[in-house]
Amino acid sequence: MQQLAATAAAWGLPLSAMQLEQFAQYAAELQHWNERVNLTAIASDEGIVTRHFLDSLRCALSWGRTPTSLVDIGTGAGFPGLPLKILQPALTLTLAESIAKKAAFLEHMVQCLGLNDVAVVAARAEVLGHSPAHRERYDVAVARAVADTRVLAEYCLPLCRVGGRFLAPKGATIEDELAAAAPAIALLGGKLHAAEPVTIPGVEPRTLLVIDKIAPTPAQYPRAPGVPAKRPL
């Protein structure tokens, strides 16, 4: 956890001894469960720290004012939502994961880490986006899923309140993808704030898309489950 502590501190995100212990427990449980359940292809100690924990924590540098609520769409093994909750314990967190085995791991981790105000929701983003309990309720929506920005925008922007932000960790080369997504982002009430270069020790260059929610999302979006991925805006 030394690299985690040093890099987070260099970013202005110092971690306490208790937080570092939570991260160590998270890594151990992830490796243990990954022997039985396919949670992640990255399960080495170094990979978990750099490609999961630090990649997740980097989002905190770009969420603007410290949020009180965050939703993580397609969170998988809990990234980036759970590391951000460890960093910011007062955060009210919703983890959306439709695969039951992964959702069970998330429930286990919430209990192991003693976290409060975390909801694990086994539902698709397209359904959450029309639920009054979730639609335009969050300060920040994040999605680290491997999906086109047009698709992620339709998943996440309906969940952001006006004045909130949608964050999407992506690879290094995203110019064409971002240009193709611009009309969808605008249609859904968003505006590109920045495409920020991300540097993590030992990891290839990455980009974090920061999209502001500047207007309400039209009522017909998101479309029915499966449609955004099959027919991106």
Structure overview:
The chain has 233 residues and is an alpha/beta fold. The chain has one domain: 3-Layer(aba) Sandwich (Rossmann fold). The chain has nine helices and seven strands. The protein has helices at 2-10, 17-34, 45-57, 81-87, 100-113, 125-128, 149-156, 175-187, 227-230, and strands spanning 69-73, 92-96, 118-121, 138-142, 160-170, 190-198, 206-213.
Compact summary:
The protein is an alpha/beta fold and 233 residues long. It contains nine helices and seven strands, in the order αααβαβαβαβαβαββα.
CATH superfamily heading: Vaccinia Virus protein VP39
Poorly predicted parts: none
Let me know the largest β-sheet: 7 strands, mixed
Oligomer category: single chain
What is the tally of beta strands?
Answer: 7
Domain count, please report it.
1
- Give helix and strand order, one letter per element, not per position: HHHEHEHEHEHEHEEH
Cα(first) to Cα(last) distance is: 41 Å
CATH architecture: 3-Layer(aba) Sandwich
Count of separate DSSP helical elements = 9
- Spatial order of the strands forming the largest sheet: 3-2-1-4-5-7-6
- Coarse morphology: globular
Structural class: alpha/beta
User: Please, what is the average pLDDT?
Assistant: 94
CATH topology description: Rossmann fold
List keywords for this structure.
Rossmann fold, alpha/beta, 39% helix, 9 helices, 233 residues
Topology:
Blueprint lengths: L1 H9 L6 H18 L10 H13 L11 E5 L7 H7 L4 E5 L3 H14 L4 E4 L3 H4 L9 E5 L6 H8 L3 E11 L4 H13 L2 E9 L7 E8 L13 H4 L3
Helix pairs in contact: 1-3, 2-5, 3-4, 7-8
